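Hi support team,

I've been running sequence recovery on a batch of backbones for a student project. Most finish fine, but this one hangs at about 90% for roughly twenty minutes before it completes. I'm not sure whether the input is malformed or the queue is just slow. I've pasted the structure tokens below so you can try to reproduce it. Let me know if you need the job ID as well.

Thanks,
M.K.
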């Protein structure tokens, strides 16, 4: 919805006229996955690449963010010991930094772990499906032999 359209709707509402929300959308047949195959395609190598990048980010962020935290806390301590009020503010920023980095580390670990789990689960599903199909083909052979085929 454009800003002008929003202003027009507000004005109509103020005059007591009924308004409705209108959602922008694609023209019919312009996409949207109505076909036999959806728009989203994911390949295992792509998932592995994302999981690996999340793991690398987790490792690097943990290592490099610690340097920033230690430096900031040293600087805060030095400023405080010299009587600068900025030392307490910098210490507060360093503490918030630790909280924010931990949130990012948790998110990276979650992504990496979830993709690893997904990869393992899909492999297990493939094995299970292959076993089921193999069992069905054995049953079919047994029925064919019994019928004399």
């Amino acid at each position: 919805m454009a800003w002008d359209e929003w202003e027009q709707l507000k004005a109509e509402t103020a005059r007591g006229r009924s308004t409705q929300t209108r959602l922008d959308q694609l023209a019919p047949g312009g996409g949207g996955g109505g076909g036999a195959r959806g728009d989203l395609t994911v390949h295992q190598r792509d998932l592995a690449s994302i999981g690996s990048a999340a793991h690398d980010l987790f490792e690097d962020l943990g290592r490099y963010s610690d340097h920033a935290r230690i430096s900031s806390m040293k600087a805060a301590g030095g400023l405080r010991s010299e009587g600068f009020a900025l030392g307490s503010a910098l210490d507060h920023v360093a503490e918030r930094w630790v909280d924010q980095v931990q949130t990012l580390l948790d998110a990276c670990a979650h992504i990496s772990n979830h993709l690893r789990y997904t990869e393992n689960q899909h492999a297990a599903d493939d094995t299970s499906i292959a076993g089921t199909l193999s069992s069905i083909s054995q049953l079919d052979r047994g029925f064919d032999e019994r019928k004399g085929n």
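--
Follow-up from support: It reproduced on our side and the slowdown came from queue contention, not your input. Helices lie at 3-14, 44-81, 86-147. No action needed from you.
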